[in-house]
Amino acid sequence: MENKLNKRERYKAQLKPIDYYKDFEKIDFESLNEGDRYYLQDFGIFNVEFLEDEFTIRLRIPAGRIEAEQFQKIADIVEEYDLSIVITARGGLQLHGVYADNVLEIHKKVNATGLTTWQSFGDNVRNIVADVYDGCGEYSEIEVYPLVMQMHDYIIKNPRYVGMLPRRISIGISGNRANVTSFFANDIYFALAKKENTFGFNVYMGGKNTEVAQSADIFLKDDEVFDFFKAFVETFYTHGSRFSRAKTRLFHMIEDIGMDTLRELIQKEYKKELQKEGVLILEKATFGEFHNLKDGTYAFCYQTDFSRLNTKEIQEIASFATKNSAQIRIGIDQKIYLIGLMEPSSPLKSPALSQTIVACAGNLCPYAVWSIKNETAYLPLEKINKYQIQVGFSGCAKGCGRHRHTDIGLIGLKTNNFGDTDGGARIFLGAEHSDGASTARQLFSMVPFAHLHRTVSLVIELFELSGYTNFEEYAKNILNKYSEDFLSLWVLANFETKKAIPLLKLEKQESYEFEKELLKKEFADLDFWGYVDENFFNAVSYLSKKLWTIEGEDPHYKPKIERTNFR
Hints:
disordered C terminus, 20 strands, alpha+beta, 17 helices, single chain, five-stranded antiparallel β-sheet, Sulfite Reductase Hemoprotein, domain 2
């Protein structure tokens, strides 16, 4: 039974998605079956059985570059049909609230803008992403947009691949020495590198929302990337698993056959000899509201309301870009960048402090249980913004907010573990995300929303007291030298005593006995000691339930006005 094709593969065997599209005009969107829902994803339309009358349409925006006129046309469609619009975590656009009787009409209008919805969901090469300052920023060495478009054009409407891969493939590429956002969560990442005084790309493979892409020990010159891409896609198409859906990502293929074997398979398709990796050229940098560009002009970062947009905003952004002959680029950080301004100034006012926060679609997605974009109000946004702390907030374990690739990661979940509390967030801490060294580790399995502001504020206060000004450096040199359960107990003990006692800087990972003595030195009088045995797990469970099983709301929380209509 293990080698039985999974359900989606059985549908593909019966009818290829490209052939399904031939009858697209005849689809009855009010009476879809399971197969219809699978096929429609390949053309950018998402629907689930329990919300049968409501649809989502997703647009690909290669490298995030969109014309002002196209942006305006999308706003017009949103306004005409009373839709909601958000920026995706892959720098695309997503329309929500599309009803069955309008799906075909809206789909046609969206694709008539010059943008495309093709292969934005489903088992496809998804929207290909790059840094927003590609080719123009002070850290740029190789402009990759031409390569992105080569790859994009090759895959779109290619009958061999439309919906026919074993699973989705996410691709990131950057020719920049420093990036606004890390790309190590991609299945394949072409990262700026240097070999024999020539700039090119090292290849990293096997990343996903919960895993870091690993070095494939391959160096490519820029004119070799496209051929390698074609060889890679064909290899995954031919050799990727098509059995259990839980094991069909590239990560699992590498886990199964190993990186060396995968490289050999790609080599056979690529034909030419692959070079061993060069020196990775990647540094960490911080990016403010304005950024100096190589040609002496400036870029402006418009911080969205945690990826939500309304038509008035889009119209103002499009108008300002047109007036100033500026490019519009959408980042995978869900912000909008205006490139090529003559002065570091803009009349556009960002609606939220969201520059370093990525949030999934929240309750606009059927898999999320909370309106994650509203729950960001539980976070100490001013402190997060002040220190440029990278935060990822996901509405479910699928991790579209990339919570494991950030300084502080959260998943919004339902819980009844703390009495009369119906919601909270799982917290992750300390990813070394800039260079793909490690994902974040779990700090707490659940913090009720009523305590989330104080808990995250305490984590940031301990960071402030460390003397570091960069959270990732703090994680690397302090947090990640301690065990997960010790860190959890340390934060809880500070929480209970209303203290903020910073952790010691360690040269290496210390023993359980060392951590135990450190706790005794500062918190010997607390009652969790009765639960400390061969580890701290039971003590963490006891103290979290003791502290967080209370009634009432977090006094720091100021509810935002609920936005039920994003026009």
